[in-house]
Specification:
Length: about 60
């Protein structure tokens, strides 16, 4: 759970230790957090890809 705690602390949304304690008690919360992280990272990757694609079309003749 080190990665999830790190991400939560970086974004300062919730105290990481309290979230991890709650996740240990609740499977639903754990699933929601994991899915949220996956969706966030997927959206971020799509944004980076879109920016990279736009830059390539401008630079190429």
């Amino acid at each position: 759970m080190g990665l999830i705690e790190f991400l939560v602390n970086v974004f300062a949304q919730f105290p990481g230790k309290a979230l991890l304690e709650s996740m240990a008690r609740s499977k639903t919360l754990t699933i929601m957090v994991v899915v949220g992280v996956i969706l966030f990272l997927g959206g971020f990757a799509a944004l980076i890809h879109a920016i990279d694609t736009a830059n390539q079309s401008v630079v190429s003749p």
